[in-house]
Amino acid sequence: MFLVFGLGNPGEKYAGTRHNVGRITVELLAEQTGESFGQEARFGAYTATIRMGAEKVMLGYSAGYMNDSGRPLGALARYYRLDPSSDLLVIHDDLDLPEHTLRLARNRSEAGHNGLKSITQHLGTRDYARLRIGIGRPPGYGDKRQEVVSWVLGRARDNLEWDVTYSLAADAVTDCVENGFLAAQGHLHSAQKRG
Q1: Terminal-residue alpha carbon distance, the chain
Q2: Active site residue 19
Q3: pTM summary value
Q4: What's the whole-number average pLDDT of the chain?
Q5: Given the residues 19, 92, 113, 122, the one annotated as active site
């Protein structure tokens, strides 16, 4: 079993926001395979199971808020006896990457991301793979800069460009599951440099 967990917040208020890019990506993966999510109340998560090549993959996202992402993810990891270093990929927004930039990383700092802090706390390790989706920093300078909270909870404007980003993110997930983290990381970063 391999778990792909997309970070986000629940409800219509947060749908389509920059903070929900992880959740949107796992929803796209389920849609591409004709699967739908069901609530797993005992874990506090929604899950769907798909096939990627020979691999059985569980897609998931929290039924609760971003800042408590580690609770449902940790519960799933323990129940299915997953090794975070080899059986898990977390998809999340990243302020430090330009919009639409994708990066695969592992065993790195949470960089102030409260969802990742919660996951690290509940897993007891930072050694898990992540697909970072760049949302960029708020526009402006100094006192004129938009607040970070309103930026991440704001809706992404370029729907067509974001559709392409989500599609590329879904492809990167598939590559990671089917070919392994290091191969997928090389493919993704080379393609982003060319792009």
Answers
A1: 33
A2: yes
A3: 0.94
A4: 92
A5: 19
